[in-house]
Fold this protein.
Amino acid sequence: MTSAPDLSPLFEPAGIVVAGASSHPGKFGFAVLHNIITCGYQGNIFATNRSGGTLLGIDCLSSVAEVPAGQADLVYVCVPASGVAGVLREAASVGIRAAFIASSGFGEGHDEEGQVHAAELVTLAAELDMAIAGPNGQGLVSTPALLCAQFVGPFPPRGGVSIVSQSGNLASGAMNYAAASGVGVARTISAGNATCLGLDDYIAWLADDPETTAIVAYIEGVDDARRFYETVSQATKRKPVVVVKGGTSDEGARAAASHTGSLATNDRIFDGMLRQAGVWRASDIGAAFGAAAALAIHEPMHGPNVAFLTTAGGWGVLTADAMSSSSVQLMNLPPDLMSQLDDVMPPRWSRGNPIDVAGGETRDTIPSALHLLAAHPSVDAVLMLGMGIQSNTAALMRRGRFSELEDIERICSFHERQDQRYAQAIVDASAQTGTPVIAASELALSNPENPGPATLHANGHPCYTSPSDAVAAFAALYARGRYLRSV
Amino acid sequence: MTTTLSEADSKLLLAEYGLPVLDERTVPDSLSAGAAADQMGLPVVVKLCGDAIAHKTERNLVRLGLQTADAVQAAATELLALATDQDGPVELLVAPMVRATREFIVGADRSDEFGPVVMLGIGGIFAEALEDVVFRLLPASDSALESMLDDLVTQAMLNEFRGEPAVDRAELLAVVRSVASAMTARSDIASIDINPVLISEGKAIAVDALVALR
């Protein structure tokens, strides 16, 4: 492989061939063809099967060599390992430039035969000039192409986060978070054994991919740490990268920690390397997606100052606590901002940060305050708590036996419209000012249909399920801002 | 196979790359040790120094807090008598006595996986319990080195502490930068350890240094 392989045939193929399609719905070779067809892929779809026949409306070919030349760019391979090389040669002969190999048996069990097959793949990639993903992976997703070339779910909503994973099910995990968060996915690749294309190849390509606004990578190990570092250092200058690194508990504590050599465990160096490369490291996939969601849709923070608007007291106290142990801070409100707020807030507002409306809000209080805060030059980010509370009250009233009363209907509709307004104000204030405005409410978890979180999600914004998750998102945005200024 | 440099030669090498060092003297015998101590001002520390001597503390080759020239001479005589044939040529290192409550460790190493790396960590008696260390790959930009201080978990160690001023971050960074520069420039260096770096009146002072060549 050259240093920067072109992966567009993998993610934007004009046609795709499933080699080893199966008529059995429990087999990978069935599920992948099913997912490609049903998720709406618009390119040419071919399938090969030794016994021919028709599968899911596709007339199967008996070999990849029968695909009309130039009609496909990508072959998804699920034949046994011993047959893969033959499929790839046939694919190259009909102009296919990329392959995803789902088949296992390429040395992941450290068996000799598998390692021979793996070495053969490396040779073939160079000989056929083919971008080879996998083997032993679950597949890839490319929402702009409506392509779901994987034998599992989900097919997430379209968005800016791209996912590179050395574990298939963590790729699915990240996509499930995407579906729940409202912040969708551009590309996902399960790298499998990463025999030919490595994590760094994917990250390098995604950094230049116009569909991708943030990258999440799950890493267990890299073959060439220096090369990985160089590639990722370049990628982070263009796109934010969030990494979850598995296997940290394998690092047995070494003896006496008295000199550099004994303290230099691989995880510690890896951690320093990620920091140096401008990567945000997260402890698990949920936290990684939380950070990536903010990085994908918001501008980086220029400073640590967070203004924090709340309609509810208790969460405010805990959030202030969470902020005090993070890199961002509850800012002091400058006098001019205080007097601007005086004009829109109820008389009994807290006159400090947290900016607590103390239950005295009227129709436009929250939207006006959100816009004021986001537009003020000393405010680096805005947090809003209390999203969805009114609709939650309305939900209970609507379920009660007095729901038919006209007054109840009227107030419920008002509550719900208010939450929609708040959510819309968050979306608009972020877009108009470039200041990240973020909401957190556990209602996003308990009732995603609530008009507050639902409106945010419909606009591609997350609604964090706890204030501490929102604080973590701010920390990632602030780290990104600092990194970009340092390079 | 690596060979070590003496403490004095290690510091001399690192000083070329900007390591701030104390006014220290190396002398051949106990009489000149006493004279050197008088000149630099008491109290002092005297150590037995030689290329093959990598672990002075373990071998009890350091005498701390010597208050008079006589005490310095006596300690020097005692140390010279502890030299063994394997030690090869030895000399005495006389240095001002530094008192500090805070210690850091700064070093560099060559990792099989990552290549040359630089490290900053919390040193002293709690070092092993805290294991608070930060690495960067070399070569590293100045901002990457500077952020190592931010990445220490125990930030309280950098702030005002028990009536002492906060650590002069530029001074501690200068120690890290000198180690990083030496490791980057000299491919013959296998590892560097500056342990401890003492914090005295906020200033960072490299009290011991060990360079291993490969």
Notes: The interface with chain A takes residues 105, 107-109, 111, 113-115, 117, 119, 121, 127-128, 131, 133-137, 140-141, 143-144, 147-148, 151, 191-193, 195 of chain B (CB under 8 Å).
